[in-house]
Amino acid sequence: MSDGLDARIEMLEVRIAHLEDTVIKLSEELVTQQQLLERQVDRYRRLMDHLSGDSGAASATQFEIPPHY
């Protein structure tokens, strides 16, 4: 009976080790994704600031097609 119990305990320990490894990998991936998201949000904010700051530099009439086209 002890051998069966030992085998079950060993199996559970192996499963826990695999689960811990998976949790660590997922945590690392989450950190990577969060860093990527923060960079993308920063780029988006800089782009929006750039676009809103250039409102006087180029008017819409500069991009309109002349009437003879």
Provide structural commentary.
By secondary structure, the chain is mainly alpha-helical. The protein has a domain at 1-45. It contains one helix and no strands. The longest helix has 52 residues, at 2-53. The termini are far apart.
Structural class computed from helices and strand pairing? mainly alpha
Low-confidence stretches: none
By DSSP (H or I, 4+ residues per run), the number of helices equals 1
Taking the sheet with the most strands, its summary is:
none
Shape: rod-shaped
Helix content: over 70%
* Percentage of residues in strands: under 5%
Mean pLDDT: 88
Give the distance, in angstroms, between the N- and C-terminal Cα atoms: 92 Å
Order of helices and strands: H
Q: Key terms for this structure?
A:
69 residues; mainly alpha; 0% strand; rod-shaped
